[in-house]
Amino acid sequence: MTFGGVILDHVMIGVTAATSVAAGSVEVFLRYTRYGFFALTGFVLTYQYRNRSLEPIGFWRRRFKLIGLPFVTWTLFYWVYGRYRIGGLDTLKAVVADQHSIVTAVKSIGYDLITGNAMYHLYFLSVSMQIYLFFPLILAILKRTWGFHRYQLIASFAIQVGLMYLMVRPPLDFFAHGAAGVVWTHLVITIFPYQFFILAGCVAAMHYEAFQAFVIRWRWPLLAACIATIAATLVYFLHITSTGTTVVRATNVFLPHNVYAFIAIIMMLYCFGTIWQQRRTPGSIPDKVLRTASDRSFGIYLAHPLALSALLPTIAPASWPGFPRVVFAYAMTVAGTVFVVEVLRRSPISLITTGRNRIDWRSQNAGRSVVVAVVAMIGGTITSEVFDVWGGYLFTATGALLAISALLVAWHQWRNRDHEFTEQPV
Length: 426
Known about the structure:
Layout: H1 2-15, H2 21-30, H3 32-49, H4 56-95, H5 99-115, H6 123-144, H7 149-167, H8 178-185, H9 195-206, H10 208-217, H11 219-242, H12 247-250, H13 259-279, H14 285-315, H15 322-345, H16 350-354, H17 366-385, H18 391-415
Helix pairs in contact: 1-2, 1-3, 1-14, 1-15, 3-6, 3-9, 3-13, 4-5, 4-6, 6-9, 7-9, 11-13, 14-15, 14-18, 15-18, 17-18
C-alpha cells in the first residue's frame, strides 16, 4: 500500500495543477509514505535482530548487496535515460566528446551516487543505506538502554519537530555558508529528518509483544483517534490554503503540523495489518497476491518513474477532467511498471535491478514468455512508430529483454532435459 501511495503521489504531481486544493488535500496525506518507509525499515531490521547477535560486517555485506547494487544500476540508468530524453543520442555523444565533458560526466555521476539525485525517488535508497550503516550501533544502544526507550522517543520526537520547523524556514546564519550550508542544503537525503520514525519503528519491534497486544486491545479507539487526527489536519489544510498559503507549501512533507497525520496513517496501517494477520488464510488468493506484491514491491518502486515518464505525455490528455486523468494515469503507470518488473524478475539482471535473485528458470515457462515478448515488441513498435507514442519504446525494449531471458531459460531447460522439473507458481 505504501508503494502504491508513492506512485499515486507522483502521478498526481504530474497530471494535476500545482494550485489545485482538491489534489493537494489528497497529496498532503500521501506524503506519509517516505516516513512510513523508514519506520518500516527500522521495525523490520530490529524485529530480525532483537533476540540474536548482529555481526556488523556480515550485516553490511548482505544489506548493501541487496540495495547497493540496484541503487548503482538505476542511478546509472536514470542518468543516461534523462540525458537521452533531453536530446537523444546527440546528447549522449556530447558526454564523451572530449576530456572536459568526460570529467564533468564522472563528477555528475559521482554526485548522483552520493545523493540519489539521478531520479527524484532514489534518495530513499541513499537514506536506507545510511540506516544500514548506523543500525548496528542503534541496536546496541537500544539493547543497553532497556527501560529508557520511552524517554529516547520523547527526545527524538522533540528533535524531529524542531528540525522540521527549521527546514521549512530560511536557514540560520550558521547553515547559510560553507560546509554546514552544504549539509543543510542536502539535509533531505540524510538520516536526520527521519530519525524519529526510524527509532519509533525500532522501539516498536524491540517491544513487539507488548506493542502488538496494545494495538490489538485498543485497535478501534486507536483507529478513531487516527481518523480524528487526519480530519483535523485536513481542516487545517483547507483553512491555511484559503487564507493565502500556497498548495505547494501546505503539502510540504516537512511542515511540523503534518507530522501528526503521518503518524496517524502509519498507525492506521498497522492496525489494519493486525486485522489481516488475524484473518489471513495461508495459501488463499489474497495471501498469494500480497506475497507476490511484496516480492515485486522494491522493483516497482525503482522502476515506476520510468513507466510514468514514458507514458504520462500521452495517457492523460490535458483536456480530460482531473479525476479521470488521475485514475487512468495511475492504472496505466502501475500496469506498465508491473510489466517491466515482471520481466526484470525473470531476467539475468534481476539482482542488480530488483534486489532479488532471478526467478528460478525451472519455474519459468519459456514458450509463454516468448509469446508475451513478441506481442510486447510488436505492440511497442506500432505504438512508437505509427502513433508516435514514446512509451512504445519502453514496451519494445522490455519485450526484447524478456525474449532474451526466455531464450536463456529455454537453453537451461534443454541442457537439463533429462532431469524432471515442473513449473512452480511464482
